[in-house]
Structures are given as structure tokens and as C-alpha cells.
Amino acid sequence: GVPVVAYDRLIRNAPLDYYVSFDSVAVGEYQAQGVLAALPPGRTNHLAYVGGSPIDHNAHLLKQGTLNVLQPGLDAGTLVLELDTFTADWSAQNAYLDVKQFLQQGGRVDGIVAANDSTASGVVQALQEFGKTNVPVSGQDAELSACQRVLKGTQAVTVYKPLRRLGHAAVDVALQAARGLPVQTNAAIH
User: What are the backbone angles phi and psi of residue 47, rounded to the nearest 5°?
Assistant: First the structure.
């Protein structure tokens, strides 16, 4: 009889009453748009997708959003997805190793959609080791280090998510549910 509210991560195999999170599909769309905006126009661009943890539902939603934006270019042949991988534990080190291996094998890349700022840090490290300093890379979370990379030009974009608003929304849902009040569902957090 106790309402269960999942905050920012979908709890699988549990009797959830509410799930409060950002629109991860939209975040993935923003990431892809940021990378595409930084690519040179009028040529075929080679991309890499470095996703989050394969066991995290949000990672799959982010990829869905990214593909929403990339698919028209992929279908038209103006974009080529050279690397498409998920990153265990959202780890910067794992993202670094994946991209390093891809580059060692001669992979071509003009832009990289990285699932978050941690994976982006590993991606940027690998790119720098191979002298690829002007490849646009995305991220999310607006971590301080990512904002610094954006200012330095080593990361093209990070998507800011107002965590305080999400926290307040989760508390509001929990309080309303605990009091037996109607809970507004499908509300957008801006």
C-alpha cells in the first residue's frame, strides 16, 4: 500500500506507481543536433555513437532520440554511422578504450554523439591522442569539466538538465501520492 516513485531511472521488476525523469529521447535529439550543427555541410560525414550503459533504460532512450535526428541523413547517405556502441557503466575509461580501438583500426570519424559528459571525456581523450582536435562531441549533464571542454572547443555541446526541478517534481509526486491526492502525470519539467 506504499506508493513507489522512481526518480530519474526506471526501476525494472518493481511495482512502480510513478516515474519522474527528464525526456531522455529529447536529450538524445539535442545531442545529435549539436553535433550535426558543428559538422561541415555539403559532404558525407562519418559519425560514431558512444552510448551509455546497455543495461540502463535511459541509454536506450537517448539513442532513440539520437537516431530520430540522424536517420534522415543515414537514409540519404549524407551520414555514415561508423561506430555504434554502448559503454559499460557509463565509464569514461570504457568510452576511451572503445574509441581508441576504433581509431587504431583506421575508423573514420567527423563527429561523435557521446551519451553523457563522462563518456564524452573518454572520447575526447582518445581523439586527442590521435590528433583529432576538431571533431564535435556531444554530452549531457553540464558537468563542470564538460563546460570547460565546450569553452576550449574540445566538446561541441552538453545538454543541461535542471536537476533541482526534477528533484522538486519527484518530491511533489511523492507527497501527493502519500496524501492520496491526484498526481499530475505526463507533466513536462522546464
Answer: -120, 160
